[in-house]
């Protein structure tokens, strides 16, 4: 019954686009754009409408339908689905564009590169080789209209309407009946002379020559135009001439044509073709070959077409990471290709892989991710950063490799704006405090201070008040000179986050102590910072109404825009100190002390030994500094254009090789004198108000700090200097013998041997009380030892011998 009939076209899982048809090859087919109803993915749909009285064309269309459905090759148009009814034929393929239309669009956009053309022709010749040599089929329709291009720029061979078998079991070649297609027939078929074709591929190779001519010169007006190569590249002309030769016997086999063009200096011998060939066979390549390929791929991507990178290279990179053993080498080309993606594509294709990479234990992959975080951080949302990335990144703070610790610190510049309250103000600050206090690498401590200065505006008000002053004060006591400079500039970069009381009572005392620092670069920056803070205090003193305006950011909530100074300061760590740690570790793992009596930090295990020679410090050129007061400085100050944000931080790489001068414990908060008279024990007893930050320095503070040499203790009363004695002659009678005490003791002791220095007790210069105490302590230890031995003997006698397998409880 008619109401039970179903329309197969309506039930077809693909639908035609409302856009007008794109046209197609000359013949019965019409090419439409379409999409899959379930997923919306784009496809191409070739439609043939059955017309009465056109049985021959209908048979040709059905034969093409069958051939396309059964032939599978990477360089032949890919069949997806089809529909055959009494009224129409629908053939669904991958989304493609006719080559003629593709070349026209690219010409308007600047034209195709020879690299793209070389790979496209390579694909068409390879498809012909497959048909002729593997399938014994003659395409019989090679021309511009039979070639299509997919979204990756890959050329696909279609137009299978007039294909026939070369073995003669399917009859002769079908009649085309289309003048536009018959002009590509070779002369031995067009002249009607009846000469037999000696090779089965001769006709298709002639048509391939016509295709090459049209690709470089446009539409072929007539066969005689083939004699002039026109714009065909010189490296391709000799092989082209073999294709369009009048003698069919000299036309090469498609496989041989590829071999000739791939010879050194040939048109198909280039990096682009080699890359594509490797990608097609990447699944069977050895791991070492894959590693080498991906390492060299990044250099070539700049010259490759964008569509090729997005749709062919990127899937292979993702597959290599997901299922292969490529590892960290895929990261550089992966992020390079990611620049060609829009935000939605990046989220779908790159971000899931990046999140998975962060959980890897491979150190090479982790450090590559940290180094290249700037390329993908903008595509990460806050929940992903806090729950899936940050928990893995923080492990880098505890890594034994200094390079990973350094990169982890610098990655916080990018992650801090996306961290939540707990991760930023609690977890991260704990790691920063430990690094600044205990890390044995000076450049890492320096970078920690720099990073803290830059992310200070993102911290909460309570965290800023508790951490910043204490942390920067600690940095100014660091024995590593660039860390002290970073501490001074850290104060300046966050100057708007301190109250006037803090500036006067906490910051300025610390900075004043640096005015006598052994390093001139530290002193220069300290003087500039002092002038800046004094200018601010003076302006508020002159006009107290400015206090509210000056302190508006002190108690404000965290905001990226609040730290304008820190934002401009951020240019340093990315450029100036990016390789600071690695340089020091390679060249000077442990900097030499400034004086012989200052101990060095121990060299970390696994690092090279310290350089035996002392590398002189190269003073950094002091950069300009920003002051709050304009027009009040001297001529020298104004000529320096005091702007702290233009500081030449790159000079710290030179300062990194300077001598290390120890300083006193930072926990005194800068309030103790730099005269060095505070002992180690007393300095530890002083508690900083910022207990949460200071608690981390129990083992890692700078207790062996550099100090001015304390004056020697005065000698005991009555002691004379050695220079006062008359060593050359007899002592005057009115002066007592200074060695009388020693002589008296020598007489009561053993007789002095004439050839020895004697067995004198040179400690006789000390008091007898000290000797008595030492003897008493020795006797007590001896008595204690005897008592312990007696107790052990009593226990053994009471218990008897121990049995095998029993446990000794005492």
Automatic annotation (TrEMBL):
Q: Where is the signal peptide?
A: none
Q: Where is the composition biased (Pro residues)?
A: 18-28, 601-613
Question: Which GO cellular component terms are attached?
Answer: centrosome; COPI vesicle coat; endoplasmic reticulum-Golgi intermediate compartment
Q: What keywords does the record list, in alphabetical order? A: Coiled coil, Cytoplasm, Cytoskeleton, ER-Golgi transport, Golgi apparatus, Phosphoprotein, Repeat, Transport
A single GO BP term for this record reads: vesicle-mediated transport
Region feature Disordered, mapped onto this chain: 14-35, 541-562, 591-646, 662-810
Q: Repeat: present as a keyword of the record?
A: yes
Residue spans with biased composition (Low complexity)? 614-624
**Where is there biased composition of kind Polar residues?**
662-685
Localization per Swiss-Prot or TrEMBL = Cytoplasm, Cytoskeleton, Microtubule organizing center, Centrosome; Endoplasmic reticulum-Golgi intermediate compartment; Golgi apparatus, cis-Golgi network
Return the PANTHER family for the record.
Answer: N-TERMINAL KINASE-LIKE PROTEIN, SCY1-RELATED S/T PROTEIN KINASE-LIKE
The entry sums up its family as follows: Belongs to the protein kinase superfamily.
Could you identify this protein by its name?
N-terminal kinase-like protein
Organism encoding this protein:
Enhydra lutris kenyoni (northern sea otter)
């Amino acid at each position: 019954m008619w109401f039970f009939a179903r329309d197969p076209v309506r039930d077809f899982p693909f639908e035609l686009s409302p856009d007008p048809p794109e046209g197609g090859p000359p013949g019965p087919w019409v090419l439409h754009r379409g999409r899959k109803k379930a997923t919306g993915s784009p496809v191409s749909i070739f439609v043939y409408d059955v017309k009465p009285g056109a049985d021959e064309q209908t048979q040709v269309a059905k034969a093409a339908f069958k051939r396309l459905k059964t032939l599978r090759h990477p360089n032949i148009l890919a069949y997806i689905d089809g529909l055959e009814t009494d009224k129409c034929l629908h053939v669904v393929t991958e989304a493609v564009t006719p080559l003629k239309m593709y070349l026209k669009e690219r010409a308007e956009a600047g034209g195709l590169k020879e690299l793209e053309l070389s790979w496209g022709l390579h694909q068409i010749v390879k498809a012909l080789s497959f048909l002729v040599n593997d399938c014994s089929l003659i395409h019989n329709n090679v021309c511009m209209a039979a070639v299509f291009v997919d979204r990756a720029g890959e050329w696909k061979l279609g137009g299978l309407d007039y294909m026939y078998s070369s073995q003669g079991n399917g009859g002769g070649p079908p009649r085309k009946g289309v003048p536009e297609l018959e002009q590509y027939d070779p002369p031995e078929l067009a002249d009607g002379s009846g000469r037999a074709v000696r090779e089965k591929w001769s006709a298709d190779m002639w048509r391939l020559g016509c295709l090459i001519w049209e690709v470089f010169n446009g539409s072929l007006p007539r066969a005689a135009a083939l004699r002039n190569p026109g714009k065909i590249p010189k490296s391709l002309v000799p092989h082209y001439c073999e294709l369009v030769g009048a003698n069919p016997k000299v036309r090469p086999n498609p496989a041989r044509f590829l071999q000739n063009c791939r010879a050194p200096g040939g048109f198909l011998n280039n990096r682009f073709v080699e890359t594509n060939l490797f990608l097609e066979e990447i699944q069977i390549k050895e791991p070492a070959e894959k590693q080498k390929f991906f390492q060299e791929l990044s250099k070539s991507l700049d010259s490759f077409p964008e569509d090729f990178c997005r749709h062919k290279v990127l899937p292979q990179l993702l597959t290599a990471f997901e299922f292969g053993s490529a590892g960290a080498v895929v990261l550089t080309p992966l992020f390079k290709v990611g620049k060609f993606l829009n935000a939605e594509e990046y989220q779908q294709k790159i971000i899931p892989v990046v999140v998975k990479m962060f959980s890897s234990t491979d150190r090479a992959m982790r450090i590559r991710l940290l180094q290249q975080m700037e390329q993908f951080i903008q595509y990460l949302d806050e929940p992903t950063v806090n729950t899936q990335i940050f928990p893995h990144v923080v492990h880098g703070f505890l890594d034994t490799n200094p390079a990973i610790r350094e990169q982890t610190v610098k990655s916080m510049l990018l992650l801090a704006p996306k961290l939540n309250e707990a991760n930023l103000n609690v977890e991260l600050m704990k790691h920063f405090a430990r690094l600044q206090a205990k890390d044995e690498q000076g450049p890492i401590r320096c970078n920690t201070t720099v990073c803290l200065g830059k992310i200070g505006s993102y911290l909460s008000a309570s965290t800023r008040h508790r951490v910043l002053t204490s942390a920067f004060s600690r940095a100014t006591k660091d024995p590593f000179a660039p860390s002290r400079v970073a501490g001074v500039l850290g104060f300046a970069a966050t100057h708007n986050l301190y109250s006037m009381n803090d500036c006067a009572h906490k910051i300025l005392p610390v900075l004043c102590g640096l005015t006598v620092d052994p390093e001139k670069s530290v002193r220069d920056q300290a003087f500039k910072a002092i002038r800046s803070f004094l200018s601010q205090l003076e302006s508020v003193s002159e006009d107290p109404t400015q206090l509210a305006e000056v302190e508006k950011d002190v108690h404000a909530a965290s905001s990226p825009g609040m730290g304008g100074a820190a934002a401009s300061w951020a240019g340093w760590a990315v450029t100036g100190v990016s390789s600071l740690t690695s340089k020091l570790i390679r060249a000077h793992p442990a900097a030499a002390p400034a004086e012989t009596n200052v101990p060095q930090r121990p060299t970390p295990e696994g690092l090279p030994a310290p350089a035996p020679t002392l590398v002189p410090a190269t003073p950094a050129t002091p950069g300009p500094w920003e002051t709050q007061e304009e027009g009040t400085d001297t001529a020298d100050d104004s000529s320096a254009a005091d702007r702290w944000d233009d500081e030449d931080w790159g000079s710290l790489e030179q300062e990194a090789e300077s001598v290390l001068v120890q300083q006193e414990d930072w926990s005194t908060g800068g309030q103790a004198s730099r005269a060095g008279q505070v002992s180690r024990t007393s300095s530890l007893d002083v508690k900083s108000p910022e207990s949460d930050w200071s608690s981390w320095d129990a083992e890692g503070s700078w207790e062996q700090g550099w100090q001015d040499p304390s004056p020697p203790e005065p000698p005991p009363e009555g002691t004379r200097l050695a220079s006062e004695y008359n060593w050359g002659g007899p002592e005057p009678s009115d002066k007592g013998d200074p060695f009388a005490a020693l002589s008296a003791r020598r007489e009561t002791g053993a007789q002095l041997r004439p050839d020895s220095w004697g067995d004198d007790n040179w400690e006789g210069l000390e008091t007898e009380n000290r000797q008595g105490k030492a003897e008493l302590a020795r006797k007590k230890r001896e008595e204690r030892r005897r008592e312990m031995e007696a107790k052990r003997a009593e226990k053994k006698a009471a218990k008897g011998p121990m049995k095998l397998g029993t446990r000794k409880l005492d």
